[in-house]
Amino acid sequence: MNAVLRIRPMTADDLDWVCAAESVLHAFPWTRGNFCDSLEAGHACCVLERDGEPLGYAICLKIVDEAHLLNISVMRAVQGQGLGRWFLDVLGHGLWEHGARQMFLEVRPSNVAALRLYERAGFAPIGRRRDYYPAADGRREDAIVMRRELTSGA
Questions:
Q1: Which letter does DSSP use for residue 12 in this model?
Q2: Are 92 and 81 in contact (CB under 8 A)?
Q3: What pLDDT digit, counting tens, does each position of 73-95 carry?
Q4: Where is the active site (predicted)?
Q5: Within-domain flag for 50
């Protein structure tokens, strides 16, 4: 039997799972309030599932013809299986269908796996935000700003 992947809208009922996953996946996780605010603001908030089991989530902000990927996460147990790339491609296609023609994101330079994923998914660095992210010992870490053209194929 083949596993069925799907992306569905995130709801308030998902927040317990999403917040628990976020706290495991990130040293500086989003708060429940961040996720609630995104849902209430009408951002594209979605959950990646395989056979009904949640495996990841994403938050995108769309403004006119641009999309900004605010958060995308895939559970560690399934990382390295191509799910992050599939998730990005399907999100990109859906955003394109809703009028977005390019997608932006920020990523930590220290997050080598994410950088590799984004580059393979067609994102290219276009700039840097100094001291964007909190880091250990009260320090700050830059963000690499990346951009990807969206097309009808994603």
A1: G
A2: no
A3: 999 999 999 999 999 999 999 99
A4: 106 (proton acceptor), 118 (proton donor)
A5: yes
Question: Can you list the positions of beta strands (E) in 66-108?
Answer: 66-74, 102-107
Query: Domain of 89?
Result: 5-149
Among candidate residues 118, 119, 133, 149, the one labeled active-site is: 118
The question of whether 118 is a catalytic residue gets the answer: yes
Predicted model pTM: 0.93
CA distance linking residue 34 with residue 127, whole number of Å = 25
Q: How many CB atoms lie within 10 A of CB 143?
A: 19
pLDDT tens across 104-138, in order? 999 999 999 999 999 999 999 999 999 999 998 88
Q: Which listed residue (49, 106, 132, 141) is catalytic?
A: 106
Domain count, the chain: 1
> Is 2 labelled a binding residue?
no
